[in-house]
Design brief:
The chain is of the alpha+beta class. The chain contains two helices and eight strands; from the N terminus they run ββαββββαββ.
Length: 114
């Protein structure tokens, strides 16, 4: 099934998997077919399961205290390195430079335009 809310970088809707097991199985299959590692993750936007290249996976969850300029909860990254990796991915994909800072309310890190 294709997502109505989540899209790949090329604008195509992401495939939705209803369970973690289904997404993990798909990630395993796609990894074998593409000779590249893929991982399953639960999406913060639609709460469904998607897959992505493992080198682009940056575990995060919505922060229960902080919001962005759009009023939505900011992503809270578990580690500084994970947040920095996401900032580098965004820079390479969209040309937007982001800085990492520690959340003062929760255990984790956020991104900011500086």
């Amino acid at each position: 099934m294709k997502s109505l809310t989540c899209f790949r970088k090329d604008g195509e809707p992401k495939t939705v998997y209803s369970t973690q097991a289904a997404a993990q199985e798909a990630a395993k299959y796609v990894s074998q077919e593409n000779d590249k590692s893929f991982s399953a993750y639960q999406c913060n936007t639609c709460n469904e399961w998607h897959i992505c290249p493992s080198d682009k996976q940056t575990p995060n969850r919505p922060c229960s205290h902080c919001t962005g300029g759009d009023g939505k909860p900011k992503s809270l990254y578990e580690t500084y390195d994970g947040a920095k990796r996401r900032a580098n991915i965004i820079y390479h994909e969209r040309g937007i430079r982001l800085d990492v800072y520690e959340c003062r309310y929760s255990s984790g890190f956020h991104l900011t335009k500086g």
